Amino acid sequence: MNFNLAGLIKAAVLNGTPLLFGTSGEILTEKSGNLNLGVEGLMFMGGAFGLAGAFWYDQLAGGNASGIVAVLIALLCAFLAGCFGSLIFSFLTISLRANQNVTGLALTIFGTGVGQFVGEQLRLKVGGNISISNALKGSFANPVLPQSLQDIPFLGQVLFSYNGFVYLGIAMAIVMSLFLNRTRRGLYLKAVGESPSTADAAGINVTKYKYLATVIGGGISAIGGMVYTMTIAGTVWNHTALSGEGWVAVALVIFCLWKPLNALWGSVLFGGLMIMYLRVPVSFIPSQIYKVLPYIVTAIVLIIVSLRQKREDQPPASLGLPYFREER
Amino acid sequence: MTHAVELKNITKRFGSVVANDKVDLYVDNGVIMSLLGENGSGKTTLMNMLAGIYYPDEGQIFVNGKEVSIRDPKDAYANGIGMIHQHFKLIDVFTAAQNVALGIEDGKYDLKKVAEGVREISEKYGFDIDPDKKIYSMSVSEKQTVEIIKVLYRGANILILDEPTAVLTPQETDKLFRILKAMKEDGKAIILITHKLNEVMAVSDVVAVLRKGQHIKTVRTAETNPQQLTEMMVGRAVTLNIDRTDPVDPKPRLTIAGLTCRDSEGVSKLEDVGFIAYGGEILGIAGIAGSGQKELLEAIAGLRHISSGSIIYTPEGKSPAELVGKTPMEIKDAGVALAFVPEDRLGMGLVGGMGMTENMMLRTWNKGKGMFINRKEPEKVAEQVYEFLEVVTPSIDYPVRKLSGGNVQKVLVGREIASSPSVLMSAYAVRGLDINTSYIIYNLMESQKAKGVAVIFVGEDLDVLLALCDRILVLCGGRVSGIVDARTATKEEVGLLMTQVGGGKEANA
Ligand SMILES: Nc1ncnc2c1ncn2[C@@H]1O[C@H](COP(=O)(O)OP(=O)(O)OP(=O)(O)O)[C@@H](O)[C@H]1O
Ligand SMILES: [Mg+2]
Question: Using a 6 Å cutoff on CB, does residue B408 contact ligand 1?
Answer without folding.
Answer: no
